[in-house]
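Input sequence (85 aa), recorded before submission:
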Amino acid sequence: MTKSKTRNIPCFRPLDELAGFFDTHDLGECWNEMPGARIEVDIKRRTHLFTLDAELASKLTEIAKSRQISSESLINAWLREKIRQ
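Predicted structure, token format:
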């Protein structure tokens, strides 16, 4: 029977020590010791991209900043309002 090459992963306090460890070690050396991860993905949401005139985009960004919201939120609010009319 072959001897396992895996070693225990040391405990690290600062994140930079952990990064330094993996600069010199292969994750494959300790893959079996890694905890499992559960990831949920919402594949129903879609992003649609539209082009805007540069001047219009600039004005829109300026208005959004003055309202302290993202340009995306402002555009969505305005489009919802226009569609309801």
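Checked by second reader. Residues 4 and 77 are 58 Å apart (CA to CA).
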